TrEMBL record:
Keywords: ATP-binding, DNA-binding, Nucleotide-binding, Phosphoprotein, Transcription, Transcription regulation
Identification of the protein by name: Sigma-54-dependent Fis family transcriptional regulator
SUPFAM superfamilies: CheY-like (SSF52172), Homeodomain-like (SSF46689), P-loop containing nucleoside triphosphate hydrolases (SSF52540)
Domain of life per record: Bacteria
Residues in Response regulatory domain copies: 3-118
Entry-annotated residues carrying 4-aspartylphosphate: D53
InterPro entries in the cross-refs: AAA+_ATPase, AAA_lid_NorR, CheY-like_superfamily, Homeodomain-like_sf, HTH_Fis, P-loop_NTPase, Sig_transdc_resp-reg_receiver, Sigma_54_int
Molecular function in Gene Ontology: ATP binding; sequence-specific DNA binding
Protein source organism: Peribacillus cavernae
Residue ranges of domain Sigma-54 factor interaction in the record: 140-365
Pfam families per the UniProt record, alphabetical: AAA_lid_14, HTH_8, Response_reg, Sigma54_activat
């Protein structure tokens, strides 16, 4: 017989649930307060499923959930919540709850189905199934406790139609985790579409997200659907959401609040059912405090908050990650020695998994075809030092290259020594060339430091993306000259 525990301070709800599930053959125990709950002897009385109201007059439902899971970890928990506390219900899922349902129960059949699914062994929630989804998404879970806890929580919230905010340093795998969310959700058969909000201009991003009508602006030669329309029943991944302009943030807020939007140049209202997964390598809460990000949009996106640990905090997973990268590069017969792994694990990886992938790819590319064993001496780590302790990568100082300055100074001194005259126009031309050279070197250093992330490089140099592109184009012109 199935033992069901109901924890709800509303006696009418307890009576209703007791009657409903007793008729299905369950043995139902109803408690109306935390004091009644703590009188239960959980060491002798076991439950297969518990229905817990989050709001109790004398206790927080989350505390009861944690106490129950501590004594009976295999008991499935269904959280009962009002609409205004859905975010708290999602937090309950992270603490071990299996699912949640909103009160009042408008659909009794849905309630019965949820309970039956939780009790059914056919519900795909095994570690093997989660691992298969992770493999399909290209996600290496590894042995790290924090990472495994993150994946378990991510799998649970993937089943629910709620927005998700993923935060983590550059290169930790936020897009890969978003793909895992999509594959683990009921939307897995629909489209997964991603866009980097910091990689394109405001006007282009608006058109990309919402679409445009023919003639809406110069170059709009035909009607185009936006991503909210294309991914209407799927998942829309908004990467680097912190870089979205204030105008775009306002439009995103409206879509999330009303599920309605208009194409650029249109007055027709369209609807979308896209699930939004947003990602940021910045702390959005800090961005809100700094007035860089809208607070109301933050709360709309942050229904579920997931944070990916940096690679330096999960170094025990480096061998698994390296093996995955070796397989991905097609080098099935190549192995890394213990010394090679030790060298990789002694590095702090400021660029996280993206940097590790670059190092492994570079090492494999430079190795001899006959070499099947990679040693520590063959691994070339980044020339950029790991971030100083206590400072973020954006706080590091980029040093101006000394060689061009020293070379120019020596040339100028030599000219003064050899002649009483000097051509000022030539000197000014040299200064201009030196300016271009230093600008180019600084951009290249910034790109190396941010592992190719142009948005981060521009922010580090405190210049616009247009200026960064201009300097890079200048490099090409100088080379040809």
């Amino acid at each position: 017989m199935i033992n069901l525990l109901v924890i709800d301070d509303e006696k009418e709800v307890g009576t209703f649930l007791s009657h409903l599930f007793s008729m299905k053959g369950y043995k139902v125990e109803v408690v109306n307060s935390s004091s009644e709950f703590f009188q239960l002897d959980l060491s002798r009385q076991s439950f297969q499923i518990a229905m817990i109201d989050l709001r109790l007059p004398d206790c927080d439902g989350l505390s009861l959930l944690q106490h129950l899971k501590k004594h009976q970890p295999h008991c499935k928990a269904l959280i009962m919540t009002g609409y205004s506390t859905v975010k708290t219900a999602v937090e309950a899922i992270k603490l071990g709850a299996s699912d949640y349902i909103e009160k009042p129960f408008d659909d009794i059949n849905l309630l019965e189905t949820q309970v039956e699914q939780l009790l059914s062994t056919s519900v795909p929630s095994s570690q093997a199934f989660i691992q298969s989804l992770a493999n399909e998404a290209g996600l290496v879970v590894g042995k790290n406790h924090a990472m495994n806890k993150l994946i378990d929580a991510t799998f649970k919230v993937s089943q629910k139609n709620v927005n998700v905010l993923i935060e983590g340093e550059t290169g930790t795998g936020k897009e890969v985790l978003s793909r895992f969310i999509h594959l683990a959700s009921p939307r897995s058969h629909e489209s997964f579409i991603g866009v980097n909000c910091g990689a394109i201009s405001e006007s282009l991003l608006e058109s990309e997200l919402f679409g445009h009508e023919k003639g809406a602006f110069t170059g709009a030669t035909q009607q185009r659907k936006g991503l909210f329309e294309i991914a209407s029943n799927g998942t829309l991944f908004l990467d680097e959401i912190a870089d979205a302009s204030q105008a775009i943030q306002v439009k995103l807020l409206r879509v999330l609040e009303t599920r309605e939007f208009m194409r650029v140049g249109s007055v027709q209202t369209l609807r979308t059912n896209a699930r939004v997964v947003a990602a940021s390598n910045e702390n959005l809460q800090q961005a809100v405090l700094q007035k860089k990000f809208r607070e109301d949009l933050f709360y709309r996106l942050n229904v579920v908050h997931l944070e990916i640990p940096p690679l330096r905090d999960r170094k025990e997973d480096i061998p698994l990650l390296v093996n995955h990268l070796i397989q991905r590069n097609g080098y099935t017969s190549v192995n890394f020695t213990d010394g090679a792994y030790e060298k990789l694990q002694n590095y702090d990886w400021p660029g996280n998994i993206r940097e590790l992938a670059n190092v492994v790819t570079r090492t494999l590319t430079l190795t001899d075809d006959e070499n099947t064993e990679i040693t520590a001496d063959e691994i070339i780590l980044s020339a950029v030092a790991a971030p100083l302790k206590g400072k973020s990568s954006s706080e590091q100082t980029i040093s101006i290259p000394k060689d061009p300055l020293e070379q120019w100074r020596e040339t100028l001194v030599k000219e003064f020594e050899q002649s009483d005259k000097i051509n000022l126009d030539d000197i000014l031309l040299q200064v201009k060339q030196l300016e271009s050279l230093i600008g180019r070197e600084l951009v290249l250093q910034a790109l190396q430091k941010t592992y190719g992330n142009r948005t981060e490089a521009a922010r580090c140099l405190q210049i616009s993306m247009r200026k960064l592109r201009y300097i890079l184009n200048e490099k090409t012109n100088t080379t040809h000259t």
